[in-house]
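Lab notebook: predicted structure, single chain.

Context: the supervisor wants predicted structures on file for every construct in the current expression panel, including those that have not yet been purified. This is the next one on the list. No modifications to the sequence; it matches the entry in the shared construct table.
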Amino acid sequence: MKAVWQGVTIAESNDTVVVEGNHYFPLGSIVTEHFEKTDHTSSCPWKGIANYYSIVVAGDTNENAAWYYEQPKPDASQIKGRVAFWRGVTVIE
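Prediction complete. Output recorded below exactly as produced.
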C-alpha cells in the first residue's frame, strides 16, 4: 500500500491495518521529511484521543491530513504506532 499526496509517496507498507475503512500505516513507513506534528487533537469514543500531522510536499501544506493514536483505548490497540490519512491523500494498492 502507498499513501500519495501531490504525486509524492508519503508512506509505503505491505503491513497496514484497516479500521473503519482507513488504512493505518506503521509509523516507520512514513517519509518523515513530509510530516510536521501539530497541536490539533480529536476524540473518538472507542479509539481515544487522536493526534495529527500536517503533510508538506514541495512547499504545499495539507493541514492535519494524517492522524495517529499515541495511546489508543484497548479496543483499538491494533492501531498503536500507526498513522492514517485523509484530506486528499490517496491510498493505493
